[in-house]
Specification:
Blueprint (H helix, E strand, L loop, with lengths): L1 E3 L6 E3 L2 H14 L3 E5 L6 E5 H7 L3 H28 L16
Helix pairs in contact: 1-3
The structure holds zinc ion.
């Protein structure tokens, strides 16, 4: 979602994950806006919740999907870590000695 900073007037993007998380906090905390931090000046630009909803009318579904995907990712990550810990014979890394000559 593209936004314009109200301080420096530059256009910047906020990613979907951030927007969906913002919409979630709007819903759960009853906020009227979402604070998006500007990519250029880092200041928080207020976006009205209506505008957020216009951009993501099916945000609740998308949020669910995002959470599911995150869980799948976590599972994959856990499986990978398990596999790595079971593989006990790790190749030793050779330490590179820095030779400083002065
Ligand atoms: Zn800005």
């Amino acid at each position: 979602m593209q936004l314009q900073c109200s301080y420096c007037n530059k256009m910047f993007m906020i990613n979907k994950e951030a927007a969906l998380a913002g919409l979630y906090s709007i819903k759960t905390e009853g906020m009227q806006h979402y604070d998006a931090s500007c990519a250029y000046c880092q200041r928080a630009t207020r976006i009205a919740s209506d505008r957020m909803l216009q951009n993501y009318p099916n945000w609740e579904e998308e949020y669910e999907t995002m959470l599911k995907e995150a869980k799948v990712f976590e599972k994959k990550q856990a499986a990978l870590e398990k596999e790595l810990s079971e593989r006990k014979t790790k190749p030793k890394k050779e330490k590179k000695k820095r030779t400083r000559k002065r």
